[in-house]
Amino acid sequence: MRLVIDGYPVLDEVEYLSRLEESIAERRALVLRDGDILIGAKAFTYSPGSIEFLGVHPQYRNRGLQKLFLDALFSVGIPLCYC
Length: 83
Fold this sequence. Notes:
Elements (H helix, E strand, L loop, with lengths): L1 H4 L7 H13 L3 E6 L2 E9 L4 E7 L8 H11 L8
Antiparallel strand pairs: 1-2, 2-3
């Protein structure tokens, strides 16, 4: 995800990875892989429904992965808060 993190100039990589691991352990994250390549990750909250992080590998953008992530949230009934 280093390629995605570079797009967020104030994001602390160590803190990001720690929070992503925490989100995965709490089942509040979706991660997509293509073999050994991490092509996308999203962390979210249940209440209020908000996206904490959404990143897609630059070579996999324009393939609809962002929509796939959002559709996954809606399919499990998590209402998003547009705050």
